[in-house]
Amino acid sequence: MDLRQLSIINALSDAVTVCEYQGIKIIRIIHPMVEAGISLHGGHLLWFKPTGEKDVIWLSENAEFDLTKAVRGGIPVCWPWFGKAATPSHGFARTSEWSLSQHRENENGVIVTLTLEDNQDTREIWPHKFHNQMTFEMNAELNVSLTSTNTDTQPWSFGGALHTYFNIADINNVSITGMGHDYLDSTQMGKVCQGSDVLTFSAETDRVYTHPQPTIMIDDKNNQRTITVTNDGDNAAVIWNPWQELSINMADMANNSFETMVCVESTIHTPTMELQPGQTHTLSTRIAVNH
């Protein structure tokens, strides 16, 4: 994504500007503490870079900005289901148009809030009433939360994920801890497996860890940093890297781009969660960089 091609629509404050890129509206944040971008298409954080740091979030160099699909990279919002539990895959939130409802800033950082409510299009896919709020708190750390409220007269069940793509120097020299031992291996048709305390990568990896610790650590050795990922409101953590063969088959990924990304996702997997009318649930992920 060439940020030089962003067209400014409206400067909302010193730090927050509404821009457009290939027909998609993007909230651009430029603040003394942080730079970031959030697409209203999908309620999707595209980049996050604390001042003095390398990019923390990975965005594909071949990302396609198309209103019919999710952007490859960033933090897609999977909701109201994860994976292929129904159609479309990963739900409709990541391809819906969200609304900017609030932005606040001070010397310590920026907070941006987006909302998505049921409409005729969503009810044709999923026949329930809801109110979703995405909150992005940005400074040296990033805190992303998805708060879902049942505004219907009947209970409904849901799943989902904050499908975070992390920017790393080299997947061959990365290790992850804190994900727990028990996982479902999606490369083996969801086979129940047991892993070790440390996860390293040498092939396609697509795992649903069912008993993760609240904080998962990514040791990005070649960037000389550790990324801590603290999740809440989840019941699983998904860790994914497509490796080369799958990357080659994806038009929106460069053939070798699997080397510089890994996904660690705050996930509501099976069993899904149920909300009674008026009930609220928050799924969140907090991301920090340590040296």
From TrEMBL:
Pfam families given for it?
Answer: Aldose_epim
Looking up InterPro entries in the UniProt record yields: Aldose_1/G6P_1-epimerase, G6P_1-epimerase, Gal_mutarotase_sf_dom, GH-type_carb-bd
What is the top EC class of this enzyme, as a single word?
isomerase
Annotated GO MF terms = carbohydrate binding; glucose-6-phosphate 1-epimerase activity
The record places the active site at H163, E265
Biological process annotations from GO = carbohydrate metabolic process
Provide this UniProt record's keywords sorted from A to Z.
Answer: Isomerase
* Catalytic reactions on record: alpha-D-glucose 6-phosphate = beta-D-glucose 6-phosphate
Q: Which Gene3D superfamilies match?
A: 2.70.98.10
Which EC number(s) does UniProt give?
5.1.3.15
- Cross-referenced CDD domains, in alphabetical order? D-hex-6-P-epi_like
Q: Which family does it belong to?
A: Belongs to the glucose-6-phosphate 1-epimerase family.
Q: What is this protein called?
A: Putative glucose-6-phosphate 1-epimerase
